[in-house]
Amino acid sequence: MPKSGISSPFIQSVDNKIRKMIPLTPETPHSRAVSASLAKLGNAPGVLLPLLHDIQDTLGLIPGECVDQIAQALNLSRAEVHGVITFYPHFHTSAKGPIHIEVCRAESCQAMGSATLEAHIRQTTGCDLNATRADGQVSVDAVYCLGLCAQSPNIMLNGEPHAHVTPQEFDELYREHTEALSA
Fold it and tell me: Is the pTM of this model over 0.70?
């Protein structure tokens, strides 16, 4: 049992009872990845965002079944962890395709023609917004600001920002990524 700084038979007894009441997260590849991230980053206050980034970088998503494990490790409620995951559009609980396109829909991009670009992306990829294509190869998500407002319209393609994107430029980027994927 980890040392809490205070040790008495009463506290140990209460601690053991609480541990028996808290359901343990079943051991899965996802829970092992979460445990590895926790071991690397610890459980100090303020570590939730870096932890979620690390988990998503490792697994490609934040598994819903691991929210309990994260909450327990950080002494947070499930609602707090879930609230952070769902508040930030960067985090997702379902797998994205190996080609992941994020289309900015903020006002600046809209004023500079993002609707036309968005329609072109949907037609070219065969994928609706906020969805993954049936074959699992392409995901397209709407986002509301990539921080490139002076260079609208813009997209993020597999985590790499692209500014002043025209439909023709998108076609070239998309072709490069699909060719790399099939190589």
Answer: yes
